[in-house]
Amino acid sequence: MFALLSFIFLLIVVIYIKSPRLSENEPPLIPYTIPVIGHTFSYLFDTENFIKKCLKEYGEPFNIIIFGKVTTVVAQKYIPEVTKAHENFDSFEVLKEIVPLHLILDYNPFDIIDFHAKTTREQLSGKLSLYFDKMQNDIFYSLDKWIGECNEPRSIKSIWNVCNHVTAKLIANICIGEEASQHEDVVHSFAVLSHDMNRFFFLPPFLSFIHQKLHEFVISLPFLIGFNPIAKHKKVLINRMKPVVENRIQQKKILGDSYKQSDDILEFYMSQPDFDPSNVNYNYLADLLFFLIVVGIVTTGRSLANLLFDYAGRPEYWDELYEEASTFNEECNGKLTLNDINKMIKLDSFIRESLRHTGDMIIVPRAVTTDHYTFSNGYTVPKGRHVYDFSEDCLFSESQYGPDSKSFKPFQFVSQNISASKVDRTYVIFGGGRHACPGRFYAVLVLKLILYHVILKYHVRTENGNMPKKSMVGPLTNPPEESLIFERRKET
């Protein structure tokens, strides 16, 4: 009896503490039935219908309760406003709660976000012309390794995993150079690192009903007590990276000003003022690279998997895409350049449409970092409030894409001359404004190059000839789990 009374008392205390306390002039709070839990289950298991119903009845913005926390939702009308107010919001504050890397890495990556953005902008997206040839070589290698010649039809399973390994090979070369990236254990670590971490980090935050910090502590606990999947990947990376770093340090001593820097991100890290060649902090270098991997490879690999399914499941567009690809291939005599790939407007439009149909309901959640933020309609939200963007409302805007906005129209951007990497008010797949993803130019180029070479080399189809559905995980999607059938394209 005492235990039961104690539990009831504790429950009452939690409900009291977690009861929403809205500040003055906040957006309306959607009515709910169960204290603390609020709208959690509707949000997780019926995201689209739930948010659309809220928008219809209350307009935007509005407040809901998810895992015991008041969250503000914006849609098509206010997403551009929030995107422009970059001084008031920070998406990494939300990422820090979902993926608390600062608790398990040797340094806090969220303290140097500007450095990571600079690295991505200047050393990745800013050097695409330098990386172009080796990116193609890595694609040739990966297609041969993971798909093969396919002289007879071959069923390829786990397409997302294959795509992660293909993109991992590309980014490993750019991150740590040709020599280190030739080792399969490095590529494998790059490919599966995020998946290994997500088994812990993407557990539903049910403990957030009590307190957010409790959830962060529990999901980080396995890492802190030694059950750390990062440790084995870090060991692999350092083992392959160390000889390269030591050799470069030695070459710098010998050659002095005649030393020629390598075109990779590791060289950029070694050129930083805080790099000490006499006492190299390999853990720090590995952590820098791991952050880029976590925020980059999974999203690019997932987009590539979605793109391959969008292509394979829609045979009515194969001929047009092949005609464009083969025409450019003939004109450049098989030696494709960055300028050539950028001229393929149908390929680019197809990729932009595939990204528009990613299926995610929420793409860039943000947290208020100033004392408060006041929307243009007068509603105010306090510091620390999470603001979720109902991105689908933009991506399928009928005013922009027509009454059939949810239809897959792969060549609709051809006449508009809009690149797949260009963000605007309704194309928010990469965020927007000053904080739009700096790696989007690299990611789009990866998608273009791989699909281009796939189109030239293979016929690709789905198992049943139709476009399979993606699986929903709360407000997010995963690529279809079906196999794809690859067959070598016959010479004509």
Automatic annotation (TrEMBL):
Gene3D superfamilies: Cytochrome P450. SUPFAM superfamilies: Cytochrome P450 (SSF48264). GO terms for molecular function: heme binding; iron ion binding; monooxygenase activity; oxidoreductase activity, acting on paired donors, with incorporation or reduction of molecular oxygen. It comes from the Eukaryota. The keyword Oxidoreductase applies. Its cofactor is heme. Belongs to the cytochrome P450 family. Coiled coil: none annotated. Keywords: Heme, Iron, Metal-binding, Monooxygenase, Oxidoreductase, Signal. Residues 1-23 form the signal peptide. This is Cytochrome P450. Heme binds at C437.
